[in-house]
Each structure stands twice: as C-alpha cells, then as structure tokens.
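U., I forgot to send this yesterday:
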Amino acid sequence: MKRFAALRTLTRLGAVLGAAAIAGAQSSPATMKAVRIHEHGDVSVLRYEDAPIPELGPADLLVRVHAAGVNPVDWKFRTGAFRMPGAAFPATLGFDVSGVIERVGPQVTKFKPGDEVYAYLNLQKGGGYAQFAAVAESEAALKPRSIDHIHAGATPLAALTAWQALIDTAGLRADQTVLIHAAAGGVGHFAVQIAKAKGARVVATASERNHAFLKDLGADVVVDYRTQRFEDFAKNVDVVLDAVGGDTQARSYAVLKPGGILVSIVQPPNQARLDEHNIRGAVILVKPAGSQLVLIAEMIDAGQIKPHVSATFPLEQAADAQRAVETGSTRGKIVLTVP
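Result:
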C-alpha cells in the first residue's frame, strides 16, 4: 500500500511539474517572430522570421510588444544611409515600442511584470520590430493611460525628438515664436503640440492638405511650402525647428531674430551663416529618456498632446510600412501591430 501511495504521489508531482513546464514554455518561448535584416538594401532585405528571444541585462525589461512605431531612421538604417557603431547583422529594426512587461532583470526597481510601458530604444540596439524586446529600465515609462498601445507605440522617438529640440536645446518659452518645418510629420505634429502647451506662438509649414489638421493641433499660422514663402509669414522668430534641411534650412537663418536659435534634426547648421545673422544653431540626435516620457505621458493624459496615427500594418508587412514612411509625406505616424 505504501508503495502504491508513493507511486500516486510521484505521478501527481510529475503531472504538476509537467504542467508547470508547459506553462513556462508558453509564457517564455525560446523564439519569437521578428523583422530583421542580414544586409543593407531596399525593402526586399526585410525578413519576417524566427529569432531568439532577446537576452536581458540586470537592469532590463522583457517587453511583450503590442505595437512598434515606424520612423525614417528605420529605413535609413536598412539602406545603410544611417549607421551606428556596434550594430551587427542580423539586426532587428525598430526603436519605438509599447507593450506589457513579461519579466524584469534583478536590478530593476521601477517596474514589474504586467506593467504597460512604452519606450524609445537606443539606436545602437533597436529591436522593436519583434514580439519581444529588451528595454533598458532607463528607456521606459508607464504607458499613458488614456491611449491604446498603437498610439503609445507611435509616440516615443518622435515626441522625444520634439521635446529635446524645443525644450532642452532651444529653451522655448511662453512668450516666444517658433517656426516648425514639416509640421504635419511625426516629429512636427508633436512639436506643434508641445510648443502650444508651453504657450508659444507656432508658425508651421506643410502641404495644403495638412493645414486643417495643423490648425486643429493649435498652429497659429500654417504656410503651404509649395506655393508660399515661409519668409513672408515668419519674421523675427525665436526658434526654428528644421526637419527638412537643404534649401529650407538655408532660407531659415534670415527669419530668426538676433540671438535666436535654429535646431536641426537632419543636418548641422552652417556656422558662417549663423555668425552672419548673430544667431545660434544646433543639430541633435534624439536620446532615450524614460524620465521625459513620463512628462510626455502626463501631457497626453491631460489632453495637451494627441499622437496621430495615419496607418497601421501588421508586423509581417513591415516592408509596406517602410515604403509609406519613405515617401516623406506621412501625416503623423505609421505603426506596426504585433501578434
């Protein structure tokens, strides 16, 4: 009898351990679906394939991704036009994520499994186009409560770029005027809203089809860059946010008042032209900043910022999403939904 009882106990224990193993395998699979590149090139190099679950550092979060934003830097990285030191093939693209924490490293103190978070991933790492992403604790913030994962996934890189350009670099104040180029795009539409929330006057450039959209966001003056000269509408401005470069940047020096600043996110300003007009200039590359995403989430939940998503694509159609972004005429953001 004792022998039979022991056998029953072992059988029950085996069943429990077997069920636990199955549950563990279901919650933490060995592989995931991801979009990776094994070489630089056109959209044909994007591969939707199995990839290993990313390994976690001691201060990392493993995030089950629900949505991943698509940004111009994604296709620039794909083609090789933009390269970061340390990047290696195969590379998982994507730098914006919103999702739910699956597990955390032993040094993580601010988050726990089950938290909904959004993050901008370091450009040297990426990994957003995937079912799971390793996110540094310092890169993440709790997702804004008032929006879904799709809109949260559209936010981090572009909103942080606008914040770091206007607030950190330009020091925009309530009594100032800012000229925002490409104002209907990903960075631009966040910049308009951040500037208005700070009490600034906003002059925005965009194609005519986006004028009503920008007015709804709070722009005071909207200029059709195809048929109008922004110089006729923007004079003695305090800040220019340049997301275009080239001739647009070259013409922007003259609209700034002495002591004003041109902040570019695409190319360094010409120092000789800055000196000629007695103005300042800077070029910035956005940095991950979970603490700033906290502030941006508060503004979203207060109704001061509304991320605009113009289209969504499933993860396996990342090539179509990148084609759309590459046109340079996207209103707001495009987002990948992740199964």
